[in-house]
Amino acid sequence: MGGLIDLITVYRRSNGKRVNVLSATIDDKTFMKAIDFCKHHMDDEPSTKKTVFDDITSPEMSPWDKQFISIELQDLLDLADVADRLDIKKLMVVTSKEVSHRFSNMSKAEKKKYFNIIDDDFTEYQKHMIRLENDYHRYNWESLY
């Protein structure tokens, strides 16, 4: 958590308003939530995992972390974005696990609604051209083997 002091200094100078970090605007609520996470985990031992992906696939999550990420989905996505931009790996792992868990529990219809995906907005001609293109690629791919 080496840059934590610098981040707090930047926040104090901004008078609690939005903070620009790496060309990204972070609202104060999300920024303070990331700071709270860093404060809580400041004395943790470094991860023994070889890569971040090992952390993501391991099922362990502390009760504090589970309670910490019990927030609205959009707030969770904002927090994951902050973790990525500020390179807070442990927060990135925790938020990624939760985002993955929440999306895996959504139905196809819920995902479409969340991402504002319209079922069928192609014309018949566009559908036909897509089918032709897919068939062309499928044929060329199969002919390689």
Automatic annotation (TrEMBL):
One of its GO terms (biological process) is ubiquitin-dependent protein catabolic process. Transmembrane segments: none annotated. It holds the Pfam family Skp1. InterPro entries: SKP1, SKP1-like_dim_sf, SKP1/BTB/POZ_sf, Skp1_comp_dimer. Residues 89-134 form the SKP1 component dimerisation domain. PANTHER family: SKP1. This is SKP1 component dimerisation domain-containing protein. It comes from Coemansia interrupta.
